[in-house]
Amino acid sequence: MKKVLLFVYDSFAEFEISILITCLNGSDYELVTCSPYSSGRTVTSAGKLKVMPDITANEVDPDDYFALIIPGGNPLIEDTGVTNMIRTFFDKHKLIGAICGGPALLGAAGILNHVKYTASLTQNDTQYLPVMNWDNKEEQHLVADQNVVTATGSNYIIFAEEVLRQLKIVPADEKNPLQYFKEPSMS
């Protein structure tokens, strides 16, 4: 079975990736979680959801995965093990999806020097100033450039749609594959 890696860390915004991981369930992809913390340590999301990661970031072999998903939150940009892992995914042309504050990790890995992106970050987020390439930031809801998909936090549905397109779970030309999540219905 093909695998997608989900990077989780304390404060990650679970709502930004909940629809995406729901749609991965039942596909040809298995979801594997990893964290920057020691093995056996629980991760707590922004909504206080507790997650026991499958592996640590140090145990990741990017060759085992088709994609890496990075939710927003307050990522630890100083962890060189994590940024090296992310950079290896980029260098191997693996799909990387980062939403909201997640692109800060892309910046810390040096990837934002090579791609256009969007994020829910501004220059007022001073903790990320050293790693963000503001010249490459687009004021868009979603940006796909090379093997990187980025979105602002409130655009988690179109983020999920684009990642699913890139993974070929939904057809590239399907306009609204997640319409079910966009409009209330009686079903």
TrEMBL record:
It comes from the Bacteria. One of its GO terms (cellular component) is cytoplasm. Pfam families: DJ-1_PfpI. Signal peptide: none annotated. Transmembrane segments: none annotated. Residues 2-165 form the DJ-1/PfpI domain. PANTHER family: DJ-1_PFPI DOMAIN-CONTAINING PROTEIN, PROTEIN/NUCLEIC ACID DEGLYCASE DJ-1-RELATED. This is DJ-1/PfpI domain-containing protein.
